[in-house]
User: Which sequence fits this backbone?
């Protein structure tokens, strides 16, 4: 963890672009609440294949209009170089200088025809076409991306993204802090020199979390799963347990020198704010 201690701590909150006017209004209220915590930026996800791109940009501009920094995500799966160039140009024309570059996932069953195979190609292309205009964040997987051939291959894939010009990384969420510490140490040994900010998923509902985790390869440790399953429909107990576990995880990460936290806030302010207050940030 030594190399991570040199970076200033960065706190950020992730949203998805709402698809109704009510959702938009609610997100404004969430933004106002979370902005009081003074994050470095908000980030807004991007549907694979560009399905949300207008709304992603609209949400970023909305947050900026409210006076806060916001970074759009962009994913390259099923896109042509021309699509991506055009969209990066729109980001640039709108004064955006910070983005999260991903490969993305297509809904199962759809073929991923496109000119980019992996996120390192997107980072390389962005640098080639736009030089140093954008600060680029990429994804990292302390518990290994589910499609990786091996943990070592996944580390090499992460290194390629950094070598292609990524400035910083945000991890997939995890509940095993040791997986993150080991991952960071391995990156350090491979001379990967960027901040690797842990992604934090607050726990609100167990069924949703279990579904997400199965899809993205994030492990819910057995002891947590058993507890959460045992609460059944008792959402108050799930939230109370989740707040305890996630606050302790964040505390441990910061004490070990993590360079900040990125909360998957899912357009809600409550859990993130409570964790934040308990951490005394
Ligand atoms: P990559 O880095 O390209 O890796 C994908 C897989 O390919 C890995 O298994 C890797 O090991 C493997 N790989 C890489 N290079 C090679 C190679 N040369 N040969 C063989 N295998 C290789 N998804 C969205 O659709 N929209 C979002 O807004 C979004 N935001 C996210 C934000 C964060 C912080 C994170 C962690 C994930 C996000 N995702 C998002 C999900 C992400 O798109 C998926 O996890 C996706 O499956 C991988 O994206 P990536 O950019 O990490 O891909």
Assistant:
């Amino acid at each position: 963890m030594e190399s991570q201690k040199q970076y200033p701590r960065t706190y950020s909150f992730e949203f998805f672009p709402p698809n109704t006017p009510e959702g938009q209004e609610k997100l404004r209220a969430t933004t106002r609440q979370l902005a009081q915590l003074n994050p470095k930026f908000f980030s807004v996800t991007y549907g694979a294949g560009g399905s949300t791109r207008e709304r992603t940009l609209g949400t970023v501009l909305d947050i900026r209009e409210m006076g806060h920094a916001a970074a759009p995500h962009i994913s390259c799966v099923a896109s042509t170089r021309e699509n991506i160039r055009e969209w990066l140009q729109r980001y640039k024309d709108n004064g955006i200088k910070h983005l999260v570059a991903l490969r993305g996932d297509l809904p199962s069953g759809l073929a991923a025809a496109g000119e980019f195979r992996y996120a390192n190609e997107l980072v390389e292309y962005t640098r080639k076409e736009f030089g140093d205009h954008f600060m680029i964040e990429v994804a990292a997987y302390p518990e290994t991306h589910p499609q990786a051939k091996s943990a070592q291959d996944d580390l090499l894939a992460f290194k390629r993204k950094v070598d292609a010009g990524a400035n910083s990384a945000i991890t997939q969420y995890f509940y095993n802090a040791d997986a993150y510490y080991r991952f960071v140490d391995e990156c350090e040994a491979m001379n990967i020199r960027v901040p690797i900010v842990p992604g934090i998923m607050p726990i609100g509902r167990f069924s949703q979390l279990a579904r997400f985790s199965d899809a993205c390869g994030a492990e819910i440790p057995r002891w947590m799963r058993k507890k959460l399953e045992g609460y059944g429909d008792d959402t108050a107990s799930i939230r109370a347990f989740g707040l305890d576990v996630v606050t302790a995880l964040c505390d441990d990460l910061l004490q070990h020198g993590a360079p900040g936290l990125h909360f998957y806030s899912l357009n809600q302010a409550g859990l993130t704010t409570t964790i934040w207050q308990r951490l005394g940030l």
